[in-house]
Amino acid sequence: MTGEVESAALRRSVLLAIAVVLTYVVVGALAGVVWEQHQLYYTDYGSLRRVFTGTGLYALVAAVASALVALAAGLLTRRYELLMLAAVLVGSLAAAYTMHAVGVALGPPDPATLAAVAADGTHVSGQLEVHGKSPYAVWPMVSLFVLSLVFFAWPGTRSDRGRAESTGAAAGGLGTTDLPPERQRLLEQIGAVTFTPVRIRQGYDIGAVDRLLDDAAATVTRGEPLVPVLDVTLPTVRWREGYDMAEVRTFLDGLRVSADGMDTRT
Fold it and tell me: Where along the chain do its domains lie?
């Protein structure tokens, strides 16, 4: 059951990553429209000094748009960070190109012809230009910065893993109502436990912990000794979300003590 849940979560994350890339492209196109609509061209030098150039405006619009998309992307998935990191990087690069392409396509040609017959101080729509390559880096740089804040600085929420329901359903089919009270309480304890997700620092692999607890619940339901099931070495992760190691160890130690007393009395 846990393996199926994990696979389904991965599929959803892949689809979400594709959606993030497409969202970046759409937002990049909209940003190109905003960029084009707010660019002005002035014919006298004094007014020209007050103009926020196409390069600066591109960077400003790109920074705001990329921050919003990256924030939404980071909050939508907290499980497969590397996958989302790749999606944000690819999407932001695509958005940088799309914004420029749309803005230039919608903007007018060289306004020199109009400026030649216009009075001083008259302003007309100007041709959009981005000078240098660095403004295009605003999209990926801001996106990755915001995404890192969401992943690493945003407080993690405790995860119930959706495992309590699956454990209860699987155990219910084995006749949990006939279990002794001690085993029933132990089964409920396993089904209700939650752990804090961690990032950067080392944590236990989420899928491995979930499978261990599912096996423990099934063992308790069958009336078999639980301690041998708990005597395993859990794999650890660092670059993707895992469970807080201290919390997992504390819970398993308590579970082991309860199981020892129950098995002795049995």
Answer: 2-153, 163-265
Rg for the chain (alpha carbons), in Å? Answer: 28
> What is the tens place of the pLDDT at every residue in 124-179?
555 667 888 889 999 999 999 998 888 776 655 555 544 544 444 444 444 455 77
Q: Tell me if 188 sits within 8 A of 246, measured CB to CB.
A: no
32 in Cβ contact with 106 (< 8 Å): yes
**103-109 contact pairs (CB < 8 A, 24+):** 103/32, 103/33, 103/35, 103/36, 103/39, 103/58, 103/128, 104/128, 105/32, 106/32, 106/33, 106/36, 107/36, 107/39
Closest CA to 39 of 101, 103, 97, 99: 103
Four-CA torsion 62, 65, 71, 76, nearest 10 degrees: -120
From the list 120, 143, 131, 136, the residue with the least C-alpha distance to 64 is 143
Strands 242-243 and 203-205: antiparallel
Q: Distance (Å, rounded) from C-alpha 141 to C-alpha 63?
A: 9
pTM of the model: 0.60
